From TrEMBL:
One Pfam family per UniProt: Pep_deformylase
Record's function text: Removes the formyl group from the N-terminal Met of newly synthesized proteins. Requires at least a dipeptide for an efficient rate of reaction. N-terminal L-methionine is a prerequisite for activity but the enzyme has broad specificity at other positions.
Record: residues binding Fe cation: C131, H174, H178
Enzyme Commission numbers on file: 3.5.1.88
Residue positions of the active site: E175
InterPro entries: Peptide_deformylase (IPR023635), Peptide_deformylase_sf (IPR036821)
Protein name: Peptide deformylase
Annotated gene: def
Superkingdom classification of source: Bacteria
Taxonomic classification: Bacteria, Thermotogati, Deinococcota, Deinococci, Deinococcales
Record text on cofactor binding: Binds 1 Fe(2+) ion.
Keywords: Hydrolase, Iron, Metal-binding, Protein biosynthesis
Similarity comment: Belongs to the polypeptide deformylase family.
Cofactor requirement: Fe(2+)
Organism the protein comes from: Deinococcus aerolatus
Length: 227
């Protein structure tokens, strides 16, 4: 009788990218906790890594998935950190494209314990919005403040404040929502989610499989450590 196979993304070396948590995963609905820069993070399926290692891998994961932002809960870590990027063109996500994204980066961001203040209360619904944890689903009409200010800690422990407007402000608000267990579909009428019921059920099934794979990876890691 054969046992379960080891998922192909599991290796002894630190990963370049992390598997993305999908719709239906409980970690996406948990309110994230404040992050201490000096504490190691126990990445599910990977093991302990420094905050900087996690941030680097999250950026690579975001580029690999052709996104513009990624929050720690999306890689299974319920801590208040996200990464984001501003590209020189094509403001919206380019998921599924072929051109290397790094060549188009104007600046990237690693924001730890971010706090958002609204600078312009007027809501904008004009952009199409999607989520790397809900792949293939895009909708317009998500109301977001047009301009925000974000106070946060960077990887060197410096306190910073950044103002953003329009699409970048939307990206920051989307990622902050993730830290509070909120998904962009929650900000749309309930019938929108119902319209995607079949697709979301499929994502929930994939999510359960991934959670099982990660648990298996952690068991293998503990067995190796104890050998």
């Amino acid at each position: 009788m054969t046992g379960p196979t080891t998922p192909t993304w599991i290796s002894a070396a630190p990963p370049r990218v992390y598997p993305l948590r999908l719709y239906g995963d409980p970690v996406l609905r948990r309110k994230a906790k404040p992050l201490n820069l000096t504490d190691p993070l126990n990445v599910p399926g990977v093991g302990p890594q420094s905050v900087r290692q996690v941030a680097d891998a999250m950026l690579e994961t975001m580029f690999e998935a052709r996104g513009v932002g990624l929050a720690a809960p999306q890689v299974g870590l319920p801590v208040r950190m996200f990464v984001a990027v501003e590209y020189e063109d094509d403001e919206e996500e380019d998921e599924g494209g072929d051109a290397p994204l790094r060549s188009r980066v104007l600046r990237d961001f690693v924001m730890i314990n971010p706090v958002v203040s609204v600078l312009n209360k007027k809501k904008d619904k004009s952009y199409q919005e999607g989520c790397l944890s809900i792949p293939g689903i895009y909708e317009e009409g998500v109301p977001r403040a047009r301009a925000v200010s974000v106070s946060y800690t960077d990887l060197d422990g410096n306190q910073k404040v950044l103002e953003a407007e329009d699409y970048l402000a939307r990206v920051f608000q989307h990622e902050l929502d993730h830290l509070d267990g909120v998904l962009f579909l929650d900000r749309l009428p309930p019938e929108v989610t119902e319209d995607y019921r079949k697709e979301l059920l499929a994502l929930q099934q994939k999510s359960r499989t991934l959670i099982s794979d990660l648990a298996q990876a952690d068991r293998l890691r503990r067995e190796r450590a104890g050998a």
